[in-house]
Amino acid sequence: MSVRLRLQPEAIGTGMTSQRVRDRLVERLREEGIADERVLNAIRTVPRHLFVDEALATRAYEDTALPIGHGQTISQPWVVARMTEAVLSARPGKVLEIGTGSGYQAAILAALGLEVHTVERIGELLRVARKRFRSLGLNIRSKHDDGRIGWPENGPFDAIIVTAAAPSLVDALGEQLATGGVLIAPVGGASSQSLVLLHKQADGTLRRQDLGAVVFVPLLSGMID
Ligand code: SAH
Fold first, then answer.
1. How far is it, in rounded angstroms, from Cα 37 to Cα 123?
2. What CATH number is attached to the domain comprising 155?
3. Residues of the domain holding 98
4. Is residue 28 one of the residues assigned to a domain?
5. What pLDDT is attached to residue 50?
6. Strand pairing class (206-214; 193-200)
7. Active site members
8. Total of domains in the chain
């Protein structure tokens, strides 16, 4: 699976955004248990420094979440990698993401050749993310909406990932999952959650697996400009 991206000169990076620094992040992820070479290759190639403010670009290849404005964060690379591995386990074609944020997770999935749909409730974040998709030549379908309703017209999806935390799983999303598909979502309170993977069985039931502790910003209701 090759990574499909159009890279402009600013995507190549220098100094703290150079390929050497990016390779170091990939080695660290490998040491911390990320084994899927397709995922590591996507992380090596997608320029994370273009998904944060210029002032934070030098920190873009640290394995840490960073602020993206509006009280939101771009997820930690290890979490993005782990969720992407879980998505690929379903051998997906079509994927739905709830919580576009910076657009980084969606870009990783699209770079892997998946058909990506993503929903964001904050209009301003979505506008910026769409610009990034365009400049990288990524064809990603996006919508400004409360993602808790999913995207029923475009379902069913082989994988659904929720990148914001809720105390319990959202039923509407399970319904939009194809048979054999996976739903990956952080479930829990504000300070810590468990990353849950639900696998949809042939009889329509969902089998649950726990992928470990994570921290995400909360899944909120309604939309804002
Ligand atoms: N996947 C993002 C992570 C962003 S943080 C990235 O790679 O950068 C989580 C995002 O979920 C925030 O942008 C937040 O606004 C969004 N969000 C929270 N509740 C939502 C909801 N109900 N519907 C859609 N997006 C939501």
1. 34
2. 3.40.50.150
3. 64-214
4. no
5. 97
6. antiparallel
7. 75
8. 1
